[in-house]
Amino acid sequence: MRRRAKTADGGQLVRVWDYPFDTVRIDCETCGRFGNYSKERFVEMVGANTTLPDALKIIAKDCPREKSGLALHNRCGVGYPDLDTGTLIRLPLKGH
Fold it and tell me: Which residues neighbour 61 within 8 Å (Cβ) at sequence distance 6 or greater?
């Protein structure tokens, strides 16, 4: 049985293997960068056990805004446009 990462308030973070769509879309609200990956390729890139928030950090590791320490209002805005923020924690768990 796979363990779930816990949030500070006891919620469970969703792992990459639980992403609900066959295509993982990622974009940045700050600079406009974007990418589309098959779920299979995304799992290969970041690891199936990686939480969705941590996967974004892996994907955005080469973002100049993320590395530069810019003010919070101008930081990397990478996210999953097909998911709302709460979904990162509250996706229905498939058979877990």
Answer: 67
Q: What ranges do the domains of the chain cover?
A: 14-83
Q: Residue 94: what residue type?
A: K
SS (H, E, C) the chain: CCCCEECCCCCEECEHHHCCCCEEEEEECCCCCEEEEEHHHHHHHHCCCCEHHHHHHHHCCCCHHHHHCCCHHHCCCEECCCCCCCHHHHCCCCCC
pLDDT in tens, 27-41: 888 888 889 999 999
* Closest to 18 (Cα-Cα) out of 60, 46, 49, 54: 49
Query: What pTM was computed for the model?
Result: 0.70
